[in-house]
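We give the chain.
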Amino acid sequence: MLKIKIFLITVLGVAMMGLLTGCSFGMRTSYVYTNGDQYVAGDREISEKIDTLDIDYVSGDVMLEASSSDKIVIRETSLKELDDKRKVHTWVEGSVLHVRYCASAKKLDLNRLGKKLTIELPSDMELGDIDLKVASGDVKANCGAGNINVRSASGNISFVQKGNSSDIELSTASGDVDLKAENADKITVSAASGNIDIYALDAKEVESATSSGETTVSFARVPKTSNISGTSGDITIYLPEDPDVTASLKATTGDITYRQAFTKSEDIYVCGNGGNEMNAHTVSGDISIEVISD
């Protein structure tokens, strides 16, 4: 399933980057969304109770930061002076904060704006959902939500998850993914071309896949199930010294090494009572199982 998803992300990335390349040669872009007349242009502070973040930012870095304020603060910078149509647009719909790159309009000149978006969130805010999409730009976040979905066609994703999450899904077509998670029922990370680095304090289910890049995962507690795959690149997995795990490890053209007291039978490695299931596979690369430091 993840291999299919990586292919689709790659196609999406090529298509969206084609749009942005068109902008860079002086073309104007249509960026149209529903309820465009409800949005407010520019920086603002939001005091309403927000449960969901819905962010679609075409080109530029996006940062979600915790703050001591009791309000959500929207701040945007750019290399050019912006008129209202080209500023960030936001709309509070009940408990949902919608964020859009600019006005809903056709044939906008969005060339070389060099925009960056920062959203400051109250540190005690409890969000239900974060849905964030960026075509070209990095995402940096330090917050939590029940469900987290971040997608980037071209850019790095760095996410520090706080609290408890049911589902965390991070994907990029071209870029690295770095996730530090406290507690999650399910974590899904994919990168078509880039490195993946995951640290999970407590996760029940983890899936990680990259086509071209290194993968490093660190589990303070071994997940109930985990699937880690790579086509071209090494996989390094950090586990406790005495993990309870049954691992299927396959390195087609590489070596497999481990430091824990595994017993081996063909491709199956068992440690402790073997109660947790792990699968790790790389076509071109090594697999190393290391001891996580306290």
Observations:
- The mean pLDDT is 91.
- The radius of gyration is 21 Å.
- Residues 2-24 form the longest helix (23 residues).
